[in-house]
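Hi R.,

Here's the chain you asked about this morning:
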Amino acid sequence: MVAQVVAKRRATALYPHAVAHQLVGKLAGATHSPVPMKMLKQFQTASGGLWVGGRATLTTEALIFEPDMLNRLVHAKGTVPPVEIPIAQIKDAKRRFDLFMGLVDVYLAGGTFSLRCYSARAFAEAIRKQSKPPNKTVDFLSFKLS
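And the predicted structure, written out as C-alpha cells:
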C-alpha cells in the first residue's frame, strides 16, 4: 500500500546534535568578533540543540522531516539527516505555546521530537489522529455466543 499524504508544513525541527558548518564559523569570524559563534553556542545550549528548517510531512505510515537545502549547507555533514518516524512509534503529539509559532512535541517511547510550525494545533491533532488506531466497536445485539 502506498502511503498517502495527510498533512504538510514548512517547519523547523530541533536537532540536539546539529553542528554549524565550519564555513559559518569562518563567516562569523570575518567580522573579527567571536560574538556570533559564542551566541550560537549559547543558544544551542539553552534550547537543547539547533532548529533546522525544512518540511514536515505526515503520511498514513510515517512522520517525515526533511531539512531544506540551505540548512543542509550551513550544518556540518551528517548532523542534520532526514527523520522518518513510523506512525506505530508515535505515542502522542501535543501543541505547546511559543512566542512566535506553536510547537508540536511528538512523543515517542525513547524521547520527544519537536517541530515548530504555523497551524501547530491542527498539525498536532492530525499526528495524534493518525497515530491512534481506529476504535473498533462490537455490535452486542448481533453477537452470539457458541
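The chain has one domain: 5-131.

Let me know if you need anything else.
M.
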